[in-house]
Amino acid sequence: MQKRALGNSGLEVSAIGLGCMGISQSYGAPMETVDAVRLIRSAFERGITFFDTAEVYGPFTNEEVVGEALQPIRDQVVIATKFGIDIAGTVGHGGMDSRPQHIRDVVEASLKRLRTDRIDLLYQHRVDPVVPIEEVAGTVKELIGQGKVKHFGLSEAGVRTIRRAHAVQPVAALQSEYSLWWREPEEAILPVLEELGIGFVPFSPLGKGFLTGAINADTRFDSSDFRNTVPRFAEEARKANQALVDAIVATAARKKVTPAQVALAWLLAQKPWIVPIPGTTKLNRLEENIGSASVARRRILPTSKTRSRRLPCRASAIRRNRRHGSIAEAEGKSHDREHQEQGRRHHWRQQRAG
Fold this sequence. Notes:
The protein is α/β, with parallel strands linked by helices. The protein has helices at residues 21-24, 33-45, 61-70, 100-114, 133-145, 159-168, 189-196, 235-255, 259-270, 283-297, 334-353, and strands at 3-5, 12-14, 18-19, 50-52, 78-83, 119-124, 149-155, 171-177, 199-203. The radius of gyration is 19 Å and the shape is globular.
């Protein structure tokens, strides 16, 4: 598979990565370990070298599976994992925990679960509203100096947070949601990433399965599937958004590819430093996703500069609720999180001085 560089970091990965979360949670029952290991190794055999996990997935079990699967080929792959979630729920930072000592403890635990001596890309999973991002970046910088981490990443961070973190320790990549269903990063995030030379790793590039055309208003999910609680997957929302899927399906038919390949190839066509990480538990879907890289190389799909009349060019054409209510409420907009962080920075410094 073709390789891509994540910005100016020097970190080179396969053009398509594998998001491993769904192996352990969220989309029904977890895979059996033997099957999960087989799937991850099959991804490598087919050209994927970029694998994404996190301590909170499972929790912990996803890193264990990824570590077992990749141990024999460790030097040939790039492993990304994350810190920053208050799994125990005891810290009181709004579900987050990026205190420096906690970061160090998480890294030590993740290294053991991943069966490795270094983490190639370490993300802050979500911005901590209490701990200043400079403290976070400085801690990761220390870990990089110790050889335990190679590159620093952020997830779901806004423009000011990205700039402040990057000033302390260069940010290699930002991971946030981006797809034909969720275009918000185009407004402010992509321009600053291009300016600073930071790569972009879109999660949910297939809209949690909706953009594949396999889900419609009549689809019923397993009781353990988290999409049962996501507003965008309410029956009414699926009906409202079906026009987008219909447009993707029609484009796929004209180009003689699949809807998933249209959605992924469109992302790849936007910027050469974008690397989507679709997840799957099925080998046939894995192969389908990998095929999107060749679709992108054929340059048969529009970019944001060469808009198609048949694909929605603005997110406003789509009912955009993510997880909680309206777009302005969905997980908190990036600038809202930053305002909270800004307002509590003084409190944090007082605590450290006390």
